[in-house]
Design a protein that fits this description.
The protein is of the alpha/beta class. The chain contains 5 helices and 6 strands.
Amino acid sequence: MKTIILMRHADADFPDIAEVEQERSISVAGLWRVEKIKAIAADVFNGIDLVLCSHLKRARQTLQELALADLGEDRVIFDHTLSQISQTALLDKIKWLPAHCSKVLIISHKPVLSQFLKVIGNYNTKLQEVVNCELLVLEAKVEAWHDVSYQTLKLKKRIVPNIADDSL
């Protein structure tokens, strides 16, 4: 069994005129959402073997705020392709994950995550947009990563921090 947790980065601040897209920080609302997702999905983050994280600042800050204490730097890969990747290229990247890993967190961006969700299942159109800090927990009943396909992946949980509920 292989588990993939897809996560969209936390909310970003609106860009300053001089600020480049790659360096937008997470906002106060983004910090709140990370705390919220940590509280409601703590069990999901247990036992992660590897993290693939977009190199963009808001994704790096999301990972930092998750504070996955048992994860050393040798188990985190900052990947510049995750900011502009297609769903097909993401699946190819998953197929090449290290064999010793069984649970992987991928922190990426809306376009690819929403596309990936659409491809793995027929979901209500309104639900296909992946929101900030949302988690998609996918499982594949396969022995090796190279056997993962859209057909073997099953959405087990979809966890969205409730923005209407301001309590932690």
